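Example record used in the benchmark description.
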Amino acid sequence: MPQKIPNYTDWIVLEKTNITELCGTYSYLSQPSNISYLSLASGGLTNICNGTINQILIKSNIKWLNLTDNRISKIPKALAFSENHLDKLWLSGNLVECNCDMTWLIDWLSGEGKHKVQDYQDIICMKGRQIGQPVYLVKPLDMGCSKRNATLFIMIFILGGVVSFVIITMGLIQRRADFRWLIYRKFGKLVGDPDKDENIDAMIFDAFISFRSVHLTPIMNNWFSRWMFDFII
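Model output (structure tokens):
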């Protein structure tokens, strides 16, 4: 890549070069300028860093970008989702890998992206299970993506259930004295076995398994003030 270009430059054409990646800082591209067209077509470009192209497209005035006939397998999301000035984009002729990480590209090319990507019908899956198929026609289900997403959903659901159980249990333990009083008010007695040993207060939910007045009296004397204090806090 050149280190400096004249200020009056409108088009930059860097085709059939040995440039393999677009990463790092390119000061003359990442600033307001007259550049409206950038072509890196027909080269050996294999990698475009998402952050780099994002900065270039946001800060510059580039409206047309040509990346055709390279060796790019992973299209950067910034081409679709950054707040840039890009009006026209060419991407065909690359080694696009169709996998579950690229479902956003499938959705984009089959939706609003087709208005920006001039050759969206010619962007072909060159790696993955859908080799030879146009990217915009690929269904994520055919790549097994729905199964992976379902597994992830189940794992999140189970984890959420475990966390909820722990939180609820801790809350009940902290409030067991209040539950003891509420049960007494409702039924006139406490539920459980009155013949438990003297370590009864060390057990979880000891409020539910003691008839002894030694456990009940402090609750009757203190529960209201404690409850109101916690509520105010």
